[in-house]
Fold these 4 entries.
Entry 1:
Amino acid sequence: MKCLVTGASGFIGRGLLPSLKKAGHIAAQASRAYPEKNIDLLTFSVGHISGHTDWTLAVANQDVVIHLANRAHSFNHKEANALSEYRKVNVDGTLNLAKQASEAGAKRFIYLSSIKVNGERTSDHAFRCDDVPAPEDHYGISKWEAEQGLKKLCEELAMELVIIRPPLVYGPGVKGNLQKLTQAIDSGLPLPLGGMTNRRDLISLYNLTGLIVTCVDHPRASGHTFLCSDGCPVSTSELIASIAKARGKKLRLFKLPARIVVGLLSFLGKQGLGERLFGDLRVDMANTQTVLGWVPPVAFEEGVLKAFALGGELNRSIDD
């Protein structure tokens, strides 16, 4: 299949491209900007993504469009127009791309959404694909609005739609909170994150890209929303211990009451981080397994080792 990957220069895109090629697909790539030396017949620089982006060259002759590009962070969530800024890229930009892809003849549109559409935490049951959406932050709201717009648009245009909602993704080159956590482990300083009993599902980049590749040409994928994970929920303490083991570092954890840690993080403006460190987020991917016959090919322990082991692995290709 001829596949266009948007956000190809990002964390997930860099892992997906070799996986598509390994599966025998022709992978074209689009991003906001590429160095001049990378521009070729399968590489497209589209500039800023919005409702006015011209995707003409990128979507021409593509069978499948895999849309990874999005705005994940706002400079200031407290700004009055912050949600509007998310919508420009994640909603308007997505629907504009889907419309142009359909007009160019694409048969399937794969949209990488987020488990944040379901919500920020679980309580009595794991998140399911048929749960009533309950996004809380600007990012989750914009992803949910994009999903709704795509369902309506793809139905009108007779283009197949596949939606994937992953939880936190980790892998070689991961940034954000996991990168900061790894740096804290490397520092050798004692961390007040011991004894946690929360349960959170994550997904390895290897497993997520495998699922996306499965959805490229699976005959039953169209029309579904797929939730996914490694199938191995862990506590924050267990995650830290696994990363430390992968890096060969001696772990120094001590336990503080959750209310103290959360209070300190809230004081520092990191309330959401405190909730993620101590809260539960479980994912039920039974529908994904039933419809696609898919199971995560890489175990959690192996995924963590590949993602965090010392020796250059943080920057290596997903095929290594």
Entry 2:
Amino acid sequence: MMSVIESFFNDCWYKGRYRPFVYFLLPLSLIYHLIIVLRQKAYEHEIFKRHPINAPVIVVGNITVGGTGKTPLVIWLAGLLMHAGYKPGIVTRGYGGRATMWPQQVRPDSDPIVVGDEALMMAINCKCPVAVDPDRHEAANALIAQEKCDVIITDDGLQHYAFERDIEIAVIDGIRRFGNCQLLPAGPLREPVNRLDTVDVIISNGFSERGEFSMTLKEKGIYNLCDDKDVRDIDSFKTKTVHAIAGIGNPERFFTHLKKLGLDIIKHPFPNHHKYRKDDIIFDDDLDVLMTEKDAVKCRRFANTRHWYVKVVVKPQEQFTHKVLTLLKDVYVQPTEF
């Protein structure tokens, strides 16, 4: 289940509890802030070197710890670019993957233990190349050289300043926003909120404020883990109680979504990128089990016909689509040789 420590910090950051403990952590946050500033200056003055990429780079990231909907947005973005005539490739660090050789190209049949859950989820849903490497520029260069990609999308990496980028898209949680607005560890922020003043586009998953675009996650169907051709709509589960599993950055978002759809759920939150075991998803009853697609890629090997995942797609504002394509057009250079 979700660790006690993770739950404790979520209560501190987003619910305003245990304030004396937060105050105790503030000196560490000040040190963390100093490190951020020094690191930024080191890149600005070329003390630390950036790695140029021979193609436009779009970074999709956030400034908070935990999930905001970046990966579904990356999947949508790849589809948008392909429809517009580009040849995108996706790179990610492969968080949680245990590969011993890098970069790793990810395919729909790759092992999530090797490449990571989010990378495999993107490979399954995208019709473009996906590569993982803790050194993102190596993965990007491999996709450009081997797959002839002319645009690189990186899932996460807003704080990875060594990776040269042309367009920055920041995704925020429209409900939780920035919590107590403190930097780690006193708060959930990876960087100060004013970092958003320097990005090209801000998109909010849910409610948006001035200067932000909005997006929603809409369920496409409920898919059986043992047979992807067995697809049902949400109404099929409304008359019965179900187990709900989520090992994502913000499990409560998934649970709340199911409850709003009218489901009676038994919640089972797990830490982000949880490495599932059979006992985690098998229960001593005959109830169906619903989970996120990110969880499903790791649970297929020991799932049965009672296990289902909720497939979601991103629906951003139309103005967001226009903004991204305009920004890319301004930085895109037709490749002459790979």
Entry 3:
Amino acid sequence: MTSEFSTRSDLLRDGATRRSIQAAVRRGELIHVRRDRYLRADTHEQFARAVRVGGRLTCLSLLALLGVFVLDNRRLHVHVDPSSSRLRFARKGKTRFDSARKRVRVHWTSLIEVAGSSCAVQVLDALAHAVLCQTPRAAIATIDSALHQGFIVESQLAELFAALPARFRSLLPLIDGRAESGPESLVRIMARMLGCDIRLQVEFDGIGRVDLVLDGWLVVECDSKQFHASWEAQVRDRERDLALAALGYSTVRFTAAMIMYRPDEVFAALRGLIQSRRR
């Protein structure tokens, strides 16, 4: 996935001429996205759109492209240098300009890490922007995902939160890179709100690993369509639930869609189960 832009000076320094640059643009080998910004033809459209606006791809747009969990991503997120003033959202017409501007979220903050000639900011900066653009629980799930996938390491968390307003530092102790999915992180936060004892990624001999065990008796599984949609997968899940029941565990399963888009119902279900046992 190409994510570097070139200036005219870069191309000339690499041996191109003014005429060869123009020819490469006509042939579609180069994309002239804006003044003095050229991209290779295989550059991902999201990067091209960000450079065309006048900045670099960041925040939820970049993280989603990398496969990091984000709860909701409906706009193009672009970082623009604080000293910049010329942004381009549409070529002609005030209506088109206003409509395009509403689909773009511009981040003007100073960067933690230098981006150079990249069409995107570094992941640490994208995460800082994502904290500002999401609810606290969604931000935790996003950082968990980046940690789990190795885009950042735990030693970088202090640097990440140092770049954010002080009010966000209360989230730092809640980060846990062991979570294997965003929905799992969201359920963990709900369980914490209920005061549960939480164990993550618990291995049971002869059964396998489960997502969470709450208060020592309730197994919570967060099922995605990708791994649980087939009848064979569902049978396998029921076999696991049966084996866990024989050991004295109750199992509740939520789909990823339930957790992300019906969180109040999921929280109510967890609260009902937990409180019934406590009574």
Entry 4:
Amino acid sequence: MRTATLIPDAFDRHLVSRFSFGWSADLAERIPSGGARAWFESQLVAEGVADDYAASMIQWFPSQTTAPRELWRQFQADQVNVQSVADDLGRWTILRQIHSARQVKEVMSDFWSNLLYVPSPNDKSWPVRANYDRTIRRNALGSFDTLLAEAVLHPALLCYLDNWDSTALRPNENLGRELLELFTVGRSAAYSEQDVWNSAMILTGWTVSMRDTWLRKYLSSTHYVGQVQVMGFSSANRLADGRPIVDGYLRYLAHHPTTARRIARRLAVRFVDDNPTAALVDSVAAAYLASGTDIKATLRALVDHPDFAQPSSIGAKVRTPIEDYAATTRALGVRALAPTGSREDMSDLCIWQALSLGQRPFGWPRPDGFPDNAQVWSSATRLLGSWQLHQTLASGTHPSSAVRYEDHATYMPGLPLPFPEFVDEVSRRLLHRPADPVLVRAAADATGSSTTDVVTSRHTVVRYSFVLLLTALLDSTHHMTR
């Protein structure tokens, strides 16, 4: 009598799928007796989750911890180039998403990075881009008002959106505009062009020692002095030191009800549905405001809402190419090892394999970040690329160095078994979910088998086409959605 591998129930599977970069054997073992909700709560206090291996990977990419001034010196001496530093950031990001035990923190770091977006590479911000990434990650589960202030006044954003060169006499509106349009209230707030101008004036004074130390500094001599008003925020702005006004302005925007709704909707789109209900958005926005922009409280309200666990929500989000890459390596137990310098290293190939599916880390060219809806990521080209990648990783052939693959025996159940039960058991071990009749039929077609077969050690699916079975499971909507 077969004893099937235990798997999480539908809600637990759904919660973990939405707030991780994919199920893995290690993650399944971390789910406590209290279920996925207890795991989720422990993840919200990320510092309590040991993460030594993922943390150690920063040593593989020295450019990510090199001081900006030294990076600039190396660049001038032709010892480093902008693209290589950006590639290291992309590799470090993907490998953390795969290997970090702090999955909720990684997911939220990705979410906020896409909201407070700075592309990489970027000619004006590249030496400080890795530090910006760490700033986002440090605040990913804190409060949005603190995150907003640290991000907007970080050298990376000050450079990217030209505030470093904005003065009272020669204002640049880029950061002031995007602060309203993209980072907080959004276009629906119906702010005016005069509001944009005042937003830019408030931010004058904050600059960066570009092409030198790359440190942020405040120059009172360049700050605009005079009355400013943006929507409901106003100040006489009489002092040359405008830093207190900037702090008040950013806090005002972070706590604005329209910002609350915009953040709530983006969270609902990311974690619930491409078209969230008004009731869900209102509930999450209310929790955001009542908690003083606390991110943990806001996420709890989202998970507690009835819409989160609606059957129509489960499996409704299409994984982006990077999410697909991370989820596939996690499901297959592929482990990156310290780089050897080979072009076949996993640490090198991960960024190119993700790019082959149509997405490069931080590669969106505009400041609005990557789109988050199924239509964008469901083209025929992307699907074909994903299916090819699934087979490549399942076969354990590419990458071929600085990587460890899980033995296929890990997924092989005891034999003999009827073909449907065989596929179900492999699905439970690989995807942590049962195989429905449609998936069994697809697996039979992919492996040249019949659903009426009895699988023994000499069956073709065991001897010759087990990789094709793994690929068929990974190609299914059970894996390509979350």
